[in-house]
TrEMBL record:
Keywords for the protein's UniProt record, in alphabetical order: Phosphoprotein
Family matches, as InterPro entries: CheY-like_superfamily, LytR-like, LytTR_DNA-bd_dom, Sig_transdc_resp-reg_receiver
Limits of the Response regulatory domain: 3-114
UniProt source species: Cyclobacterium lianum
Record GO terms (molecular function): DNA binding; phosphorelay response regulator activity
Chain ranges of the HTH LytTR-type domain: 130-219
One Pfam family in the UniProt entry: Response_reg
4-aspartylphosphate modifications at: 54
Keyword presence, Cell membrane: no
SMART domains: LytTR (SM00850), REC (SM00448)
Gene3D superfamilies: 3.40.50.2300, LytTr DNA-binding domain (2.40.50.1020)
Protein name: Two component transcriptional regulator, LytTR family
Length: 219
């Protein structure tokens, strides 16, 4: 079962989403919200798997909200404006539904969410495979200290080696369990490996990883 909320500043649009969602057997639409801030507050206290999100809203846009959501949260944009499609996919949205969308199109987007959730690694499994120039390499979560973004590549720092993989940081975040947290726009750290927290950095083994002001509270 996929849990979800919908956020849109138009009541009629929310009613369409509610009607479609009621016909999808594996989707549980828990709440709908007329503004992004209310939806964000709900997601902080009662996180769901999926957010069905309008883009053009007052005060806080759907684009802005998507950037604030937890790493593992899936997003499907629902909007009347096709010009936002590129930005939506840059944020790794699962799908982009252009209003008015049919039930069949809505169902197709939800099936993507279902497939994506089934593909996510479990913390119990304790590892993930990443693609490198030498092929697929298994990375055990417990051995991964931190990750560093380098353009279209990421460097995974283990205790005795570094592994470089071609992927975006957003893609990497979706592959890692919840105990990997951002300390900086370019760094993800294994919270279980942090030995010391200082004002602007954390120490992990012999490494010191920067902490920016906007990510301080995530520790």
């Amino acid at each position: 079962m996929i849990t979800a909320i919908a956020i849109d500043d138009e009541r009629m649009a929310l009613e369409v989403v509610r009607s479609h969602a009621a016909k999808v057997p594996f989707l549980e639409l828990q709440q709908v919200f007329l503004d992004a801030i209310s939806g964000l507050e709900y997601q902080k206290t009662r996180p769901v798997d999926l957010v069905l999100l309008d883009i053009n809203m007052p005060d806080l846009s759907g684009i802005d909200l998507a950037e604030m959501l937890q790493n593992e949260t899936m997003v499907i944009f629902t909007t009347a404006y096709s010009e936002y499609a590129v930005k939506g996919f840059e944020l790794n949205a699962l799908d982009y539904l252009l209003k008015p969308f049919s039930l069949s199109r809505f169902l197709k987007a939800c099936q993507k969410a279902q497939e994506w959730k089934q593909l996510q690694p479990s913390e119990i499994n304790g590892h993930v495979f990443v693609k490198t120039a030498e092929g697929q390499i298994r990375i055990n979560f417990s051995e991964l200290f931190f990750c560093e973004a380098m353009g279209n590549y990421v460097t995974l720092h283990l205790e005795d080696e570094k592994i470089i993989s071609r992927m975006t940081f957003k893609e990497l975040e979706k592959l890692l369990p919840s105990f990997f947290i951002r300390t900086h726009r370019s760094f993800l750290v294994n919270k279980n490996r942090i030995e010391k927290i200082e004002k602007h950095q954390v120490q992990i083994g012999d490494h010191r990883v920067p902490v920016s002001l906007s990510y301080t509270l995530s520790l």
